[in-house]
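Example record

The entry below shows one chain as it appears in the dataset: sequence first, then structure tokens.
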Amino acid sequence: MKVLVVGAGTMGHAIAEVVALAKHEVYLVDIKEEILKQAKANIKWSLEQLLAKGKISSVDEVLLRIKTSTNLKEVAPLVDLVIEAIPENYELKKRLFEELDSICNENAILTSNTSSIPISKLANATKRSDKVAGLHFFNPPLIIRFVEIVGHSNVSDSTIKRLEEFARSLDMEYVVLRKDVVGFIVNRLAIRTFLEAVKLTEKGFKYEEIDALAKIRLGYPMGIFELADFVGLDIIHDVINEMIKEDLKISMPRMLKELIANKRFGIKSGAGFYEYGFAIRTPRIDVERIYKINPVHMLATTINEAAWLIKNGVSNAYEIDKAMKKGLNLPKGPLEYADDVGIDKIVEILEQEKKNTGSEEYQPNELLKELVLNGNLGKKAGKGFYEWKYEKIDLGNIRYEKRHDYALITMRREKRLNALDEEMWRNLNEAFNKAAQDKAIRVVIITGEGRAFSAGDDIHVMSNWKSLNEGREFFERTIGPLVMNLMNYEKPVISLINGIAFGGGLEINLLFDIVIASEDASFALPEGLIGAIPPLASTLGLSMLNRKLMRYCLTGEQFSAEEAKELGLVDLVVSKEQLDIVAIEFVDKIKRLAPLSVKAIKRSFNSYKSIFLNSIIIGANELASLVASEDFKEGMKAFIEKRMPIWKGQ
């Protein structure tokens, strides 16, 4: 195929190189010879890098396929396909398409690499609108092997088919937009994320913090503001302007206007949101602070816009997510993310923001509301934008949910603050066994329902123990199997402490791998106050954490989530609304590791815990021995009667 690329700038010469590498004959046209000379030099340098890496066998062979010219009228009649890559100015592009229409052969397809201008406007400037389409590449096209093929109401099926064949010949993946909308898929959605990120800066967060959130928590290859600087703030400004012209309920950020006015266009001008030079000092980021930002607030309007694209027949969920993943190299698309965190949560945040701001841009799309109304909430329901493997089983007061590739175990004895009785211990063990046996499950999450994770062992059960043997038998027969199971468990376990974690409800967390607590969570080891002891905390806990835990074993004092974090009991403290969101982020991070590597890490850690098994047994025996004491009986009785115990030391 003979291909004409008009415009030899950053994108134009890069597209010409990609097309020539695919063994097409290329004509590269610009208005000045010096521009073409620089473009050819850039292409040669790039090809030399490919040669050095062994990806091509000859630089000259590729260069021979690229002919440069300043005479558009001379070369345009020779080609089958035109790719326009001139500056983002509608009048300029319109005049070019009018000229191309008059000089190209009647079968030639005319395409634009525009980022913001509606393709239908350019098509209407010609007499061959059926052969005009968008062909939107991403910078740099040599690395980002993806293109958006953009149709409109008059484009023919044969034109789209020929462009699909062309994309495949370039070894590029693609999506086809069935309708022409400003910004297409990727830019349209990326702008939504960008605008919400800007609003976060207005709430006091720094560019660096928001970018760190994107990279550390969401797994993005670049931060929101880093990407904006890379793309070019002038281009982003143009896309937003076009979206505003199309009556989208958005406004131009004041800070973007100021940056443009000061000629801070991003990397290409040496400064944008960040400064670019040889003496850049990378600022230190307080990683804890990025957990103060709820990423759903930044992505809710992006998801809402994606729902609009589906509702209006522009694309479908799979193609939208594919475009975002391939075009921006994201680990997951916005609609998969919505299914992960829950579509009901997305709608809730949109409605909350609309109430707070009065802005129509937060009005939830009808598709989102329909999904929520029908109970299609995402992974937690088995269906959302996608179908997921889902299973829900109630094991007495324990609920087990398989959410595609992770399991959620919820303690559901809310009225008793999820206190651990015999049934609960056994059902927890059964739930963990079920997750262990399911090969699809990569990670297990455990939490409690209501305002408590677990208030610990049920005092009413303990008060029925009458002898040393009864206490020992309960531990060996009821608690022991779960403890031993978790000591040797080969799948990662994430604990979400959503409130009270006292006694055994705290101690069981010593057997989990990642512990995330809500800001209002509270902890205590009050066993000594009722004549018992914390058998895990006073053995395994002291060994794995440090001597500081001894204070709480000896006093029964309550302590906060932040204090638990300082002790090493808790890994991360977040707001309650983010508890499950952060858990899913950790699930995603764990899933990036090879399954056998995860298993090997767990086995290694389990072998370390097993060193303290004898101490745990001693602790359990000490607890059992206290059951027969007068003090234990007094402690149980005083607790039930809600009075201070009178100790005798017997």
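Notes for this example: The longest strand covers residues 132-137. The CA atoms of residues 7 and 30 lie 5 Å apart.
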